[in-house]
Amino acid sequence: MTGTTAERPEPVDILAFGPHPDDVELCAGGTILKAVDAGYRCVIVDLTRGEAGSRGTPELRAQESAAASELLGLVGRENLGLPDGGLMVRPDMESLVVDAVRRWRPRIILSPCREDRHPDHETAAELVRRAYYGATIGNGPRGTLPAHRPDALIEYYGHLEPEPSFIVDVSDVWQRRLEVAFCYASQFGREGDAGPTTNIASPEFSRRMESRFLYWGSKIGVEYGEPFRVDRQVPMDDMVATFRKRGNAVL
Q: What is the mean pLDDT of residues 119-143?
């Protein structure tokens, strides 16, 4: 893509970055579904093709991400083609992320949490953090497109879960969220391939995933919840609506 504003797509409300195809779906898929249902325009940008994964192939993963994107109702998805297992905080990689922000011009950026066991997740989080600021600098050293200033950078949780800033109720989209996640059949071991048993392909993973989001839902008095973190105070417009009693929950 070139640097002219006319050739960029329409601005979006949420731009979610994933280190690999499937990360956004597994960690924040319910929130994306709710946003799309509410009329917001959402896009996912994957940093790598997942070519270092133990199961499947990049080509198969691309087919799976296309199916997941359709179920999510995204208005766009792209892959930056950075090396899986080789993400680094370097000017060339940072520039690609900066231009993704400037190309889609989101109001909100979703990023992996900076605290994670997976090195690619940690590095992706730092690249996005730097790009979130770098995209605002009109004459900065990174990127080629006109500057853009998003409203907020919000982190979703991967392998680790520090204290969240807020939790989104995803109870009403939970079954759809599962359908989206299971588009990645190669990763869940659902495609009939007798590949290696990985964490996500283990029989226990789906149960652990459900338990995790049941736990976070219980913290806000709902069935399923997705936790997020921001580095600033979260504003509140309607105290009564925010703290309404949910079922028999006492919060």
A: 92
Alpha helices in the chain (DSSP H): 23-37, 58-72, 91-104, 119-134, 174-181, 185-188, 205-218, 239-242
CA distances from 56 to 17, 59, 165 (A): 21, 8, 35
Measured CA angle at 200 (ends 13, 47), to 5 deg: 40
90 token code pair: 């370097």
- Tell how far CA 65 is from the center of its chain: 13
- Set out the domains of the chain in order of their start, with CATH numbers: 13-230 (3.40.50.10320)
Q: How far apart are CA 155 and CA 165, in angstroms?
A: 10
Backbone angles phi, psi at 54, to 5 degrees: -75, -20
pLDDT digits (tens, 9 = 90+) for 93-113: 999 999 999 999 999 999 999
pLDDT in tens, 31-76: 999 999 999 999 999 999 988 766 768 898 899 999 999 999 999 9
**pTM, to two decimals:** 0.89
- Rounded Cα distance, 124 and 14, in Å: 17
26 CB contacts (<8 Å, ≥6 apart)?
A: 181, 200, 209
User: CA-CA distance, 177 to 162, in Å (whole number)?
Assistant: 23
DSSP string covering 170-222, please?
Answer: -GGGHHHHHHHHTT-HHHHT-SS------TTTSTTHHHHHHHHHHHHHHTTTS
